[in-house]
Task: inverse folding
């Protein structure tokens, strides 16, 4: 059942996906459709390795890229539920020494505003930190606006949150995620670093021209984008989020409550000064780890995953518990989003322009 009440068959969905990967020149694609909180459709298309013509499968290990952040946020909220962390306590209270005394954060020594930053600000991207320090003019880490005052997507912020979590708990994010999320959900082919068991079925990433960039054999956990997972496993996570299985109701409601209103004209570059009122009608906002907007079909939550050779996307509508998960091993993957979302669930509401995606002319199925 699509958002507008119409239906699409599995064979029709297959045809939409095949047409989309051909038009967008995408190497491999995995798609999951959720309906009423359950996995209604799952299939993979294309290849995980073009040299040996190995097909992509639902159990192929891929890079989740920034879809990692959604899992990390759930972990943080579970630790809040357990009384280990507090979203509104300044993060410095969890550190044994001042933040600038840590090598990665020495640049912040002259700016005492770091003392105002909380986990909530790191998770809703309002900390004032850049996306990545190497994208700034001098490659130094700075606080660009008063913490909590505006939205600016920040991988640096999530990495700082990871340090706070690991310092505050005395455990690595890898161990915490495995114990509190992966194992309970049966995500058996998921990890924050490469494991030998992944060698039997993994994907290479491919650039815009189809050149292989290889797999992401990560050796250390990175909460901002290091999750290695499969279409099947990440679908289990999204299903659990939709069903409210991972968190108490109050925590789930907080995760999907607007924390900061978004007025930026584009999501990237994150510190661009241009603003717009174009998204006021959909109340574009950020919750904890998820983007939010409101449509005639109710509240939607979404997240992009973008890395060299990998493009992923998930969007879900809370009221109908429906949505789509898209995972690709291609830098061309973003051109798939509009035709898949609009044909598979009739999502015509996603803010493509703000996210920097091309909608184009979508052929209806």
Result:
């Amino acid at each position: 059942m699509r958002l507008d009440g119409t239906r699409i068959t599995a064979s029709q969905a297959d045809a939409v996906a095949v047409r989309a990967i051909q038009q967008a020149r995408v190497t491999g694609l995995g798609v999951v459709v959720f309906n009423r909180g359950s996995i209604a459709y799952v299939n993979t298309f294309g290849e995980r390795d073009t040299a040996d013509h190995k097909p992509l499968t639902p159990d192929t290990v891929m890079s989740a890229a920034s879809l990692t952040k959604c899992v990390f946020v759930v972990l943080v909220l579970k630790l809040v539920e357990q009384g280990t962390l507090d979203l509104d306590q300044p993060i410095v209270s969890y550190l044994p020494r001042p933040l600038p005394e840590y090598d990665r954060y020495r640049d912040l020594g002259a700016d005492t505003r770091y003392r105002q930053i909380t986990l909530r600000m790191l998770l809703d991207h309002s900390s004032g930190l850049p996306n990545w320090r190497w994208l700034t003019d001098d490659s130094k880490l700075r606080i660009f606006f008063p913490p909590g005052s505006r939205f600016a997507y920040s991988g640096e912020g999530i990495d700082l949150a990871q340090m706070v979590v690991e310092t505050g708990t005395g455990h690595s994010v890898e161990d915490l995620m495995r114990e509190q999320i992966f194992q309970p959900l049966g995500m058996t082919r998921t990890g924050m670093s490469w494991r030998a068991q992944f060698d039997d079925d993994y994907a290479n990433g491919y650039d815009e021209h189809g050149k292989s960039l290889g797999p992401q054999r990560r050796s250390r956990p990175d909460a901002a984008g290091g999750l290695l997972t499969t279409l099947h496993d990440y679908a289990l996570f999204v299903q659990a989020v939709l069903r409210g299985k991972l968190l108490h109701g109050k925590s789930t409601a907080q995760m999907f409550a607007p924390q900061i209103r978004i007025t930026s004209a584009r999501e990237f570059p994150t510190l661009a000064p241009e603003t717009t009122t174009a998204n006021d009608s959909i109340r574009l906002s950020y919750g904890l780890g998820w983007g939010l907007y409101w449509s005639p079909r109710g509240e939607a939550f979404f997240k992009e995953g973008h890395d060299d050779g990998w493009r992923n996307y998930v969007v879900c509508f809370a009221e109908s518990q429906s949505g789509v998960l898209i995972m690709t091993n291609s830098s061309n993957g973003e051109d798939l989003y509009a035709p898949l979302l609009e044909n598979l669930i009739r999502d015509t509401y996603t803010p493509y322009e703000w996210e920097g995606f091309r909608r184009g002319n979508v052929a209806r199925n």
User: Anything to note?
Assistant: The domain at 10-355 is CATH 3.40.710.10 (Beta-lactamase).
